[in-house]
Amino acid sequence: MTVFFLIILGIPIIIYATFIGYISLKVSGQDSIEPLKEFPKVSILIPCRDEESNISKCLESILKQTYDSSYFEVIVIDDFSSDTTIEIANTYLDSLYLTVLSVKSGGKKLALNAGIEKSKYPLILTLDADCEVGEEWLSSMLAEFTNKNLKMLCGPVKLRTDSSVFSHLQSAESAAIIGISAVMLNAKKPCTCNGANMLYRKDIFFKIGGYGHQLHVSSGDDDLLMQRFYDFDFRTTRYTLNKKTFVYTSTCKGVIDFFKQRLRWASKSKLYFYLYNVFVQALVVAHLLAFWLSVYLLVFEQNWWFLILIGIKLTIDFIYSSKLNKIFNTKLYLVIIMPIYLMYSVLVLILSNFIVPEWKGRPIKKKNR
C-alpha cells in the first residue's frame, strides 16, 4: 500500500518539480537594456473607476519619467466613477499632455477602446490607476520594445507589501506567477500577463479585431489580448522581467477583497486559447493535494517514506524562491507556509462554478458569443 501511495502522490509532485525546475533555470531579471536607438511616440492609457485615492499618485509618477514628455501623451478614461477621480485627474492638465475621457458604462474593455480611438500615437501602453512607476519605466519599456522590434511587450507588476504575512504571501505568489508567465511566453507557451503594464502596436490591435472577440466576458483585457497578439505573430510577443520596467501596486488588504480578485482571475482563465494553461492550473492543485496527503501519511500514519515527496516539493520551491528573490526581493521563509496559503486555490476552483465575480459593484458577466 505504501508503494501505491508513493506512486500516486509522487507523480504530480515529480511533474511539478520538473516544471518548476525548468522555470528556475530560465527565469532571469538581470538582462541589461540597450539604450533607445529611436524615440517613438506612445499613448499611455489609464482606465479607472472610483480611484480618487490613487489617481494622483499614478500621474505624479508619470510626471517624473526620464523619457522626453513631448513624445508621449496620457489618456485617463473614467468609467462612470461616483467619486472625484475626474476632478483630480483634471488638475494635471497643465502638467502633462493629458486627455480625460468619460465613458458612462460598459466596463474596462470599452473604456480602453475609447482611449485607443482617442489616442494620437502608434504605440499603446496600458497602466492601471492604482499603480505607480519608476522614473525609467517608460524609456525602459520602449527600449525593450523597439530594440527587439516587437508588436507586444508584457511587463511585470510588483506588489508592495505591508508588515503582514498575508501581504508578503500575496507578493511572493504574484512573483512566482509572473516568473512562470515570463518564461512560458518567451519559450513560445503564452500563459498570463497583466494589463497594468502592457505595450503594443495600435495597428496590430485593430488588425486582430481589438477586443471584439472577447467582449462576451468583462475581464481578460490582458491575458486574452496577449494570446491573440501571440497567435498573430509569436516571434514578436515577449515578456520582460527587468527591474526598470516594474510597475508597483498594493496587495489586497482583506480576505474578502482577495477572494473577489481570485474569482475574477478564474473567470477569464476558462477562456484561454491554449490547453497547456489548463494543465498548469491543474498541476498546481494536484501537487498541493498530493503534498498535503503526504503530510498526513507522514504525521498520522508515521510513514517516513513520504518525507521524500515533501522534501522534493519544498526543495524545488526554495530553489525557485531563491531565483525570484533576486528579482522581486521576496521572503524565502514563506516557502514553508506557502502550501497552507495556496489551498485557497482549491476553494476558488470550486466557488468559481457557482459565484459570478464582481468588480467595483459590477458583475463580470459572460455574454453569448
Structure notes:
- It contains 13 helices and 12 strands.
- It is globular.
- The strands form 3 sheets. It has a 7-stranded mixed sheet with strand order 3-2-1-4-8-6-9, sandwiched between helices.
- The N and C termini lie far apart (49 Å).
- It is an alpha/beta fold.
- Helix 6 (165-186) packs across helix 11 (306-328).
- Helices cover 48% and strands 13% of the residues.
- The model has no long low-confidence stretch (mean pLDDT 91).
What is the element string, with H for helices and E for strands?
HEHEHEHEEHEEHEHHEEHHHHHEE
Low-pLDDT residue spans: none
Structural class determined from secondary elements: alpha/beta
Largest sheet: 7 strands, mixed
Helix content: 40-55%
Rg, alpha carbons: 21 Å
| Count of strand segments | 12
Sheet with most strands: strand arrangement: 3-2-1-4-8-6-9
Mean pLDDT: 91
Shape: globular
Kindly summarize this structure in a few lines.
Helices cover 48% and strands 13% of the residues. The chain has 369 residues and is α/β, with parallel strands linked by helices. α2 (55-63) links the parallel β1 (42-48) and β2 (72-79).
Fold topology:
Elements: H1 2-26, E1 42-48, H2 55-63, E2 72-79, H3 85-90, E3 98-103, H4 108-118, E4 123-126, E5 132-133, H5 137-147, E6 152-154, E7 157-160, H6 165-186, E8 198-201, H7 202-207, H8 223-232, E9 237-239, E10 247-250, H9 255-269, H10 276-299, H11 306-328, H12 334-341, H13 344-351, E11 358-359, E12 362-363
Helix pairs in contact: 1-10, 1-11, 6-11, 9-13, 10-11
